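dude i think i finally got it to work??
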Amino acid sequence: MTDNKPFEEEAESYVKNKLLRYKFNIAKPSFDIKGADLLILDNIDSHYSKILKIQSKVRTIKKITNSIKIHKYYVKDDFIVFLYAIDEIDKEKEYLFTFFKEDIEQWNQTDEHYILSFTSKSILNDKFQSTIFDKTIVDKINILLEKTKIKKFTSVIVDGIFLERVIFETFQTYKKMYPKKDLQIPSIENVIMNITSMYNRFQAEENILNFHVYNYNENVDGSQVVNGNIIVDNDIENRFYFHETNGFIYQDIEEYFMKVLNLENIIFVADDIIYEPMLHDLEDMGIDVILVMHTESGGNNMFTDFRWGAIYYPIAQAMGLGRYEW
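look at this
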């Protein structure tokens, strides 16, 4: 059986490079969610977040019929299909077709799927050629981003260096306490979702939660979002943005804080004295923040009047420990 994975990765890279050329912010989920192979991110450092989901398809165009199918569940206003196609005979002939919701709904249908069938001849007709990726398509994507509904969210800001360290330390502690249990180091995503379930004072408006995790990486150029992910849990859409910087992460976090001050709910996961001046400034401005950090007995490093919660409990929960085992 032919391995199509390299061909699929080539198509995905081709789509990504085309979009990056037009200055779109692109992230790849760590797994396929709601049909999304890639994400277009807008306003990632603003008050509100917009996301478009991209599904990447690839085909070698033949004289006989080719086809692609998309599950109907995926096809929403924020969903775009890119079809990267290479001519079977002339390998230098390549095309990138782009289909929006209104285009996909014109395809043939089954109970669960939309199906697009085509040949090397049919792709030359005007209707197909009008979907080739160009400046007109770029303008349509920008218009779609503008029209995408703005959703308020609970903002969870995470010092990734602190969280990764305390996850490992907590795992080691509980591993010694419960040697007979097959405990595993939990993922950052699961820990953060538990933090929110424990310490979130408000229900997320329209079931949206945004998480910004900041880490240091000497190999990145400046500061950038290097990955994104969406996890749907109990009908709540949890959006993760992983930021990396070759500078001091506290500067990036401080800058982000200054841009989300109108949000009703901010959770800050960190424990470093370097954040104290920023937190005192927020207090003076009347901004409310929930801190998640070490306990006093655990050696906390930040001292403010903000309410706070212990970091250990959501980690223990993510490891599978029950409430009375924390």
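The mean pLDDT is 86.
im so relieved honestly
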